[in-house]
Specification:
Layout lengths: L8 H11 L13 H10 L6 E7 L6 E6 L5 E9 L2 E5 L3 E3 L14 E4 L2 H15 L3 E6 L9 H12 L11 E5 L3 H10 L4 E5 L5 H7 L2 H4 L2 H15 L4 E6 L7 H11 L5 E6 L14 H10 L3 E4 L13 H15 L2
The chain binds S-adenosyl-L-homocysteine (SAH).
The site of S-adenosyl-L-homocysteine has 17 residues, from strand 8 and strand 10.
Length: 332
């Protein structure tokens, strides 16, 4: 606003309109007509369109497929927990990390999301559902550390007192183990929760299911996690999707405990979601593995699965829509 020769407080007015879900400058009735016209020529307001919305009959989980201004689609999931409503947002259109069990990465990465497109997911999910959002997890499609500048700007916006004012302690960021990103985040000493998608504590298994391990080996990843804890004092949450015969042996639980010694880790065991395209099957040893971790004094929880009836996990809805669009083209 100052650059446009306007007083600074006008910026606050626009910021506040945008956070009430204004989709055009014409709605901003406390701005003068000439200013609104000027804004129209110099700025755009991003407004995602609901391309699909599915509500789980089992638990009320809502899944949105948003269409962005350029026609790309992204997923957002709204989950109701006793501690409040949590929204799981995407950070990229697609993903280039290539994890073998994950549907989000099958067609690769199309592009990064802008800070506004991440913020829109939180804001428009709240406006459309009428449910106030209290927690955010960056666990949708994409690798946040592969788009870190935009993610950091988004965090600043969503944390703003004049905006959605969501506290850092109510935000989790999940990474597949991009070490430079973890280091950079550690320096910032934010109060958010870092989640690390571990999925295997040994190099051989991890490289087999997560190509990122060939660039950033799991032993270096553990080192980076220890440093992150020393720097921030924040407990890291380790995500572990249980895959039959691959990462569910007792020796792997023992190795996790050994590698986490010296920091208060929390292991979140995820029953594997069946992805049609993937050869991996859900493990039958989830409870046994949890016990084994606990025998070493670790905290281990099993993630409750929500939205099982609405393709709510990991890029499944976006894939389904892409698949249907492709079939539609074929039949024309
Ligand atoms: N790229 C980031 C953010 C995605 S978070 C990351 O990797 O952490 C999504 C979480 O779901 C990750 O822990 C991911 O490994 C996990 N996931 C992916 N596919 C899954 C599947 N089929 N079953 C269970 N969890 C899966």
């Amino acid at each position: 606003m100052k650059e446009m020769g306007e007083p600074g407080f006008r910026g606050k007015q626009v910021f506040s309109w945008l956070h009430r879900g204004a989709v055009s400058f014409d709605e901003m009735s406390d701005l003068s007509k000439p200013l609104r016209e000027k804004l129209k020529t110099q700025c755009v307001i991003t407004v995602p369109r609901v391309a699909r919305k599915q509500v789980s009959r089992l638990d009320g989980t809502v899944k949105y497929l948003w269409e962005l201004a350029d026609g790309n689609c992204i997923e957002t999931v709204l989950m109701q927990y006793h501690h409040g409503n949590t929204v799981c947002i995407s950070s990229q259109v697609g993903c280039r990390m290539g994890c073998a069990f994950c549907a989000s990465t099958i067609a690769g990465k199309v592009r990064d999301l802008t800070p506004a497109e991440m913020l829109d997911q939180v804001l428009f999910t709240q406006l459309d559902s009428g449910q106030e959002i209290s927690n955010i997890v960056l666990m949708g499609i994409g690798e946040p550390m592969d788009n870190l500048d935009n993610v950091l700007r988004f965090l600043e916006l969503v944390n703003s007192h004049d905006g959605m004012n969501i506290g850092m302690r109510h935000i989790s960021l999940s990474t597949c183990g991009v070490i430079p990103g973890i280091r950079r985040l550690a320096e910032l000493e934010l109060q958010l929760t870092l989640s690390v998608s571990l999925h295997a504590p040994d190099s051989e298994t991890r490289s087999r299911i997560m190509p990122v391990n060939r660039a950033f080996d799991v032993d270096d990843l553990f080192d980076a996690c220890h440093r992150y804890f020393q720097k921030t004092g924040r407990r890291i949450s380790f995500e572990y999707a249980m895959i039959d015969g691959i990462n569910d042996s007792d020796w792997q639980a023992d190795l996790i405990a050994k590698k986490l010694r010296g920091m208060p880790g929390h292991v979140n065991l995820i029953p594997l979601n069946d992805v049609v395209e993937s050869p991996f099957k859900p493990s039958k040893r989830v409870a046994a593995f949890q016990k084994r971790l606990e025998s070493h004094g670790l905290t281990a929880t099993v993630r409750r699965s929500l939205g099982g009836d609405i393709d709510a996990s990991c890029g499944q809805l976006r894939r389904k829509a892409m698949e249907e669009a492709r079939k539609g083209e074929d039949s024309q």
